[in-house]
Amino acid sequence: MPFVHLSLTKKLTPESEDSIKNALGKAISIFPGKNEAWLMCKISDGAHMWFQGNNDGESAFAEVKLSGSVDSAAASRFTRELCAILEKEAGVAPSRTYVRYTGGNDWGWNSSNF
Fold first, then answer.
1. Contact between 4 and 64 (Cβ < 8 Å)
2. How confident is the model at residue 114 (pLDDT cuts 50, 70, 90)?
3. To the nearest 10°, the Cα dihedral for 32, 33, 38, 39?
4. Tens-digit pLDDT profile for residues 12-34
5. Which secondary structure element, helix H or strand E, spans residue 62, and what is its range?
6. 43 and 21 in contact (C-beta within 8 Å)?
7. Sequence-distant (≥ 6) Cβ neighbours of residue 89 within 8 angstroms
8. Residue 109: other Cβ atoms inside 10 A
9. How far lies 31's CA from each of 41, 68, 75, in Å?
């Protein structure tokens, strides 16, 4: 049950959104037991964000929520991959991207909890 929420300052084209979604679908398998079949993505583009006291360039904040615990080595690999995706598809420098990981066991789906 991975969920990735991206907040980006850049306004994306539908094609860029689709490319990001497809790339995330492949990258999520970095986490053991996770795959695109259960991935939910939310892309909030055109966000008003300031980083390091300014908005002089594109910025991004990613929230990655996973069922179970977060494997630190996998999170490190995913951060590198996510930054590469955002740099290519949205022009966001890795130095202007934050990523936050959250794990937990209380996930619901289809009217019940796992």
1. yes
2. confident
3. 0
4. 999 999 999 999 999 999 999 99
5. strand 60-67
6. yes
7. 12, 16, 19, 20, 23
8. 11
9. 16, 11, 7
